[in-house]
Amino acid sequence: MSLERGREVNIPARITVLGSGTSSGVPMIGCICAVCRSTDPRDRRLRPSIHVEVPGWASILVDAGPDLRQQALTYGITRLDAVLFTHTHADHILGLDDIRGFNFTQQKPIPGYATTGAWESIRKMFYYIFDGVPREGGEIARIETRDIEGPFAVGGVSIVPVPLWHGRLPILGFRFGSFAYLTDCSAIPDQSWPLVAGVDTLVIDALRHKKHSTHFTVAEALEAIARIAPRRAFLTHMAHDLSHAETNARLPAGVELAYDGLVLDASVDAS
Ligand SMILES: [Zn+2]
Ligand SMILES: [Zn+2]
Ligand SMILES: [Zn+2]
User: Fold this and answer.
1) How far is the CA of 77 from the centre of ligand 1 (A)?
2) Ligand 3 center to residue 172 CA distance, Å?
3) What is the pLDDT of residues 124-137, one digit of tens each?
4) Element of type H or E holding 196
């Protein structure tokens, strides 16, 4: 860690992949394929999310999918300074209600960061959280909505939103210092390549081998990785088409499949 003009750089951060699976999760309900029946724990994939812990600075969740409760319990996430949303597909927001657990223990609303358009969808989906109508019985989640309009900070930690195409839907990836998380993408727009230039560690979408309209295939993810040229890259948001062991064995040096519980070190900037 060092100080540059009031700005601290190279603060150690710890990234945990909470879920590396596609929207259905792996195994998929009712499926008896080899991957869904695999006994390799790396073939069991919860819905996509990561946790970014910057000790002494911030605890940040990226996306709140339907497996949030299980992920928080498994990986010991006990407090949050913010939840960031990449986009509003069900596999990224359906756990929003479980933010209540953090409200209870921290005794305050949790700041949420999303684009204005994403908040519109979240407000519709979770009308009972945002309509201001008092409800009898159990507590509702308390989220402080903040619009992402450019680079921002959580607990002083600098975060750069990275615009991505998810089919025709504009969504966000996020860069935290030396690390970038680009989930759910099928194309990287011209203006976003410079935003991920020089990253050391990259986690990027790779659904399967077969072409898909809203996700990179493994081959497309490898092309993007070659252009970004991080020291190491990990594929995420995988469907049951990809066996961990078999797929991983064929990836080029420096590229691996992510798996649930994978921990990556990174360094971030803060002020
Ligand atoms: Zn997704
Ligand atoms: Zn299957
Ligand atoms: Zn999506």
Assistant:
1) 21
2) 11
3) 999 999 999 988 88
4) none
